[in-house]
Design goal:
By secondary structure, the chain is an alpha+beta fold. The chain has 9 helices and 20 strands. It is found in: Secreted.
Length: 377
């Protein structure tokens, strides 16, 4: 089943991608793309649902080949986690004299996407501001807006800090604030790391949250041990009890939980979401972006315009010919002009010509004068 590129579920519903935790469907009738989330196949590790953020030191003291081992460390752990929007979510940040978000807890839900992003990291190669990185993790990385589940859902928030040096800023106070905010901190030091700083950062009990690895060459071997600890430590009851039991979860707004990528509107449905476009636009084949659709709303001859029909953003408006104006019904037209005479002139019955009132009076007066003269002769 995992090798299928297309499977027909109904005459109009097609599976467009291989069976992975993220499945996309396209409904031909509705021209709508749906995204469903399936629990991933069984993995080596049966952790419960976690929100885990790797906080990676990429200061100048970390040599290029050493940074490569840190990449491998993260990838190896991710490959053994139960990844998914309702299982374990993963984020990665790197730090030096500044902090850079590589991807957030809501960015990716497949291992392949995460691995690609990790392999594209370019080390910052500056100082070692570990306290600044912890502050960022607390105020940004572990927020609901960036994909962390709300605290009331009691999903463990785990920060894994990997560093090779002594922090150049204070970590004790900010680490205490992060722990108080519900973040469990694992401090992993490599060769030159300062043990006191690691202990100041980590959550209690320290013997379970502080690790010192002698060299970068051993960090991959340590990663396997650390993975076992994650598997043992967290409650496995949070995972999906069967492969499809929680396919249609209710009460979760996937549009706010995930980075949906819809250009116009995201519509949340149980365990899924789909994208919609504004009027006058149609959904593209990617199921997320929208394109303007040219609709001839005047073509069906049912517009009712007396004079002219004009297309306008997927609908129509009526216009009148020169000399007419649109009625209140926005469809019929009335004569928009009328004639008016200058002072001293009167509009004639044809509604267009004018005759001066002075000449009318003069003609009447002359006629009266003539009649009077005739009468006296």
């Amino acid at each position: 089943m995992s090798t299928l590129s297309e499977q027909r579920f109904s005459p109009n519903l097609l599976l467009l991608k291989p069976l992975t935790p993220l499945l996309k469907f396209y409904d031909r009738n509705q021209r709508t793309s749906f995204t469903f989330f399936f629990p991933p196949p069984e993995t080596k590790c049966k952790t419960g649902a976690l929100d885990i953020v790797f906080v990676i030191d990429s200061s100048r003291s970390v040599r290029p080949y050493e940074f490569e081992t840190m990449r491998r460390f993260m990838i190896d752990i991710i490959h053994n986690l139960d990844i998914g929007p309702n299982a374990t979510r993963v984020g990665v940040i790197q730090y030096s004299s500044q902090v850079q978000n590589i991807f957030s807890l809501k960015s990716f839900f497949t291992r392949a996407e995460m691995e690609k992003a990790i392999n594209s990291i370019v080390p910052l190669a500056q100082g070692t501001m570990t306290g600044l990185a912890i502050q960022y993790a607390m105020n940004v990385a572990f927020t609901v807006q960036n994909g962390a589940r709300p605290l009331h859902r009691k999903i463990p928030r785990v920060a894994v800090i990997v560093t090779d040096g002594r922090p150049q800023d204070r970590v004790t106070e900010v680490a205490a604030q992060a722990r108080a905010a519900g973040i469990e901190i694992y401090a992993v030091g490599v060769q030159r790391a300062d043990m006191n700083s690691l202990r100041a950062m980590a959550s209690p009990p320290l013997e379970e949250h502080v690790f010192l690895v002698e060299s970068f060459d051993l960090i991959q071997q340590f990663g396997k041990q650390f993975q076992d600890k994650l598997c043992e430590y967290y409650n496995p009851q949070h995972i999906f009890p069967s492969q499809y039991e929680n396919l249609f979860l209710s009460g979760v707004d996937m549009c706010t939980e995930l980075d949906h990528g819809c250009q116009h509107t995201c519509v949340s449905i149980p365990s899924s979401f789909y994208c919609q476009c504004k009027p006058g636009y149609k959904l593209n084949a990617d199921g997320k972006t929208c394109a303007s659709k040219i609709i001839d709303a005047c073509a069906n001859q049912r517009h009712g315009c007396e004079h002219q029909c004009v297309n306008s953003q997927g609908t129509f408006i009526c216009r009148c010919q020169t000399g007419y104006q649109l009625n209140q019904d926005k469809k019929t037209c009335i004569n928009g002009y009328y004639c008016r005479c200058r002072d001293g002139f009167t509009l004639q019955e044809d509604g267009k010509t004018c005759q001066g009132t002075f000449y009318i009076w003069l003609a009447v007066a002359m006629y009266a004068l003539i009649l009077s003269h005739v009468a006296h002769t």
